[in-house]
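ESCALATION

Customer reports they have been waiting on this structure for their group meeting. Please prioritize. Original submission:
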Amino acid sequence: MSESFQPAPRPAEAEPRRPSVGVQIGKVTVGGGAPIVVQSMTNTDTEDAASTAKQIAELARAGSELVRITVNTPAAAAAVPRIVERLQMMGVEVPIIGDFHYNGHQLLEAEPACAEALAKYRINPGNVGFGKKKDAQFGAIIEKAIEYGKPVRIGANWGSLDQAMVAMLMDENAQRAQPWDAAHVAREALIRSALDSAALAEKIGLPRERIILSAKVSGVQELIAVYRDLAARGNYALHLGLTEAGMGSKGITASAAALAVLLQEGIGDTIRISLTPEPGGARTGEVIVAQELLQTMGLRAFTPLVTACPGCGRTTSEFFQELAKTVQAHVREQMPLWRVKYDGVENLTLAVMGCVVNGPGESKHANLGISLPGNGEAPAAPVFIDGEKATTLRGDNIAREFIGILDDYVETHYASREA
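Update from on-call: job pushed to the front of the queue and completed.
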């Protein structure tokens, strides 16, 4: 698609998207008005059951509510039941999705234990089969999903377009009095690939409440246009994600720019942030970004987030930055325990500010805030609890004392689930 492509503006009279059909994946509901679900994908060799189970557990503990794994070889398919068994022994109940390309029909037929162990199958209509074999191989996977009672994501992707669909649409386009541009044809190919495959799955017998659709591209404007159109043409549950988003700030910025627009319009039922991790970096980064995107938009709450100023010439040192980092790290470290023990703690708001300009005001807006001294200010850090000044910290132990106040606040202000 052309980098200069601009999607048509959303009509001012457009109605909000009606709720999609809900899909049950294990204990997780996607669509149907349920909260937007965060998912992720492993990058381990699935044949290595131990390392794959370990990474799934890490992703689940970070907050991923669905985890997808590659199932590409007979050995990988055979490993799936062992992976699920390992997770059960670890007390991890996250639903596992099998990602199939080219040979999914063969693997599911040869490994019935894999077909049973997976919570959902993902099929790419662009490479499920080619020519006369395409519908038969697609149908074979759908029939396995029906046999084992599994939902299916039909995921079209710009990087693996259904070439037969593209050729057909190009022929149709040539007959138009005013032909579409190439970007429009490509967009239509993605959407039709997903929708036509869903229609075929329903014809075979897979109910709509077991179908999720996606149509991923790697450009922000293209993704917005594709999903607006896809949502307008059906009420299937939709999985959102900017494919091949990239590394670091570029991947985060691009994903947030695209998904935020769609989520604000009520489009999307489950999301993945497809980040390329740094070499040796944790895979869990994509989960944290997805959570923070939903939380900063006010769509869900996962963990207390820290409001912190960026620093300027008024701030005397990097101490407030270090404190903000320490507080956020402490919250994430404690959250697995807090989530189990305290009801509603994910809604806690925190502020770590660096000077008197906005420090007291932001601190008063948070449940718990601290305003550190800036240039020319007295060496004192007032602490505010629920809008009221509670104490003032001084000296070399401010970080430890503030963490103590935070822990005490959580313990005294949130109902214990054990009660």
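Sent to customer with the following note: Residues 153 and 337 are 33 Å apart (CA to CA).
Escalation resolved.
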